[in-house]
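Open question from group meeting: does this chain pack into something compact, or does most of it stay loose? Before anyone orders reagents, we agreed to write out a predicted structure and look at it together. Recording both the input and the output here so the notebook holds the full record.
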Amino acid sequence: MPGTTTSRALLLASVVLTAHMFLCTAYVGGDGFSVEFIHRDSVKSPYHDPSFTAHARVLEAARRSSTQAAALSRSYGRVDAPSADGPVSELTSRPFEYLMAVNVGTPPTRMLAIADTGSDLIWLNCSNGEVAPGLAAARHAHASAPAPASAPPPGVQFNSSNSTTFGLVSCSSGACRALPDASCPDSKCRYLYSYGDGSQTRGLLSTETFTFADDQGTRGDGKIRVANVNFGCSTTMMGSFIGDGLVGLGGGDLSLVNQLGADTSLGRRFSYCLVPYSINASSVVNFGPRATVTEPGAATTPLIPSEVKAYYTVDLQSVKIGNKTLAAPQQSPVIVDSGTTLTYLANELVDPLVEELTRRVKLPPAKSPEDLLPLCFDVSGVRKGQVAAMIPDVTLGLGGGATVTLKAENTFVELQEGTLCLAVAAPSDQFHPVSIIGNIAQQNMHVGYDLDKGTVTFATADCAKSSGSLYI
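Structure tokens returned:
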């Protein structure tokens, strides 16, 4: 609800918002909707560097993966605590791999935000006249915060004063209470999120109408409007953030997935199909009934309780190569995360996995670039089409009897010309080691998350074909 109910303008906005909400619930019912899932290195991304070779992009993704995995380890099991600057929610750092576009407000402002399956709060860069110390001043005051490797292109700011559907969230609302920490010095729900790499964002919890372009839809104008979305209108940021904001797709209460389930008939479910790095096409993320995984051989595993509610965590029971099965250590939770490139498994699995692959793969060894990965082969003398046939399948045994088969494209990656490396490593943080199924392992898979059923489903798919109209 708006924080100042005596204002006629805000009262009018509230009426318009309610009307949009009514229309939205009826409109979004159908089969759901799909939007582009844009890899950060795609030519559609503002962060695409045309000077990078395909191998250089993969190497950069592997470097980011190490940072992301370390941050997930630090946040796993950490108890949130206030800082001297106010309440802090300690989350992951902000290396990211995928973006999605969202149109915010009425009239809409198009914003390209990080799509994050490892967090819940949606927040966007805002300018609404209630700015705390500016970005430049904040960075000066926190000189120790890490700076981006290169200056990001100018981002988009959402000007809430130009929208007829913008509202503020009161401190007594359920959304404000869902924040790990919130402060209410003036009856407005204010937040400060601090991430594992020292970055911070703060602002006002707000509501707005979000519009998504249904790239595979044929109904009406192809626009899906969802009213009353709770999001953070961020007025101050510092550190390594890039992009126009972040769309949380995790399992927490404030994520887009949970809000769609609460405010529409779509249910709390979404899926994506990740196109391999080597193919020049966008991936796709689906919401509602369209997110159902129906491909042959689909394997469903139950979600298990996680120390961080936003994380999608399943039970890893074994890893199989050929006829050799490696039993996972007791109680082996593994996070399914699109924002981490590599896959991370316990040392007790990685060491025998490397040993078995070394024995089975008849290729000369090679040194890993920057010692990032535990096993590499020299493929400079092998024709491209022959390499995959030389790599055995790796099968993950998950809870509930589910098995997920990883092909060569899911387990190995060419980090530099002629050097093929295992895209699996042990966590670097030995104090809080966290296992992760990363996005290379999920390439050419339709992966569906259903919070209503408490499941994750995997199925082999041709993701470039399923993205259809999203080819670039």
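Observations to bring back to the group:
Residues 84 and 192 are 11 Å apart (CA to CA).
The radius of gyration is 22 Å.
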